[in-house]
Amino acid sequence: MADNSEKKKSPAKLPERPTSGRQKLMESALALAASTRSLATLGLREVARHAGLNPNTFYRHFKDFDDLGVAMLKELGTELRTGLRERRMRPAAKGFRLSDLSNPAEGLAQAQALARESVGLVLDFVKDHREAYIVGIRELHGTSPVMRKAMQQMLEDIAKDMTEDLLGVLKLPAVTPEEMIEVARVIVRQMVFFSMDYLDQPARQQEIKREAERFILLLFWGAIAARAPALLAQSGLKFPAI
C-alpha cells in the first residue's frame, strides 16, 4: 500500500471551479470518506462542519448522501470521458484508420501510441484525483445500491465511448460492435485494478503503465486475429515488445 506521506500529498479534489457551498460539501465528503469509510457512514453535521457551512445548507444542494455521491461521480466521469475521447480522436484527425493496413508497421505504431496515451491519461487522472477515485471504487462494492448503479453506469459509459470511437472513427477491422463492447468492458474493468496498483505501488508505476498498455494491445490484437487472421498473416507483423 502507498505510505501515508504519499496520501497527504494528494488532497481530495474535484475538477477545479469557483468554490460554492455545493462544491465545499462534495470536497468535504471526499476528505472524510477517503481514508477508510464510505459515503453512507458520514453524518450530515459532520460534513457541514468540515465544510464550514450550516448543516441546513446541505439540503439546498442535495437530497441525501447518495445524491451527493452521484453528483461527484458525474463531474469526475465527464472530465475523464472527455479527455479519453479527445485522445482517441487524435489519430483519426490525421486521417489514420486501423482498418487501413497499406502500411501495417505505421498502423501498429499508431495503435500502440493510442493505447499508451489512453493508459497515461487514466493513470494520471487517478493520481490527480486519488481520494475521489478511491471513494468511487469503494462505492462500486458498497452498501448503497444508488452509488453502485452510478459507478457501474460510469464504467459502462466509458466502455460505450471506446466502442463508438474505435468502430465509428478508427474503423477497427473485422470486429463486430457486439465483440467490441465486450472488449471495451474488459479493458475498463481491468483498468480499475491497474489504477489501484498504480496508487498503491508508486515504485512500480512505470511498470504498471507498460502492463496496462500491453494488456490493451493483447486484447485488440486477439480480437483482430480471431476475426481476420489473414490481415495479420499478410502484414508479417509481430506483437510489439513493451
UniProtKB/TrEMBL annotation:
The chain crosses the membrane at residues 215-237. Residues 43-62 bind DNA. Keywords: DNA-binding, Membrane, Transmembrane, Transmembrane helix. It comes from the Bacteria. The keyword Transmembrane helix applies. InterPro entries: Homeodomain-like_sf, HTH_TetR, HTH_transcr_repressor_FabR. PROSITE patterns: HTH_TETR_2. The keyword Transmembrane helix applies. Residues 19-80 form the HTH tetR-type domain. Residues 1-22 are annotated as: Disordered. This is TetR family transcriptional regulator. It comes from Panacagrimonas perspica.
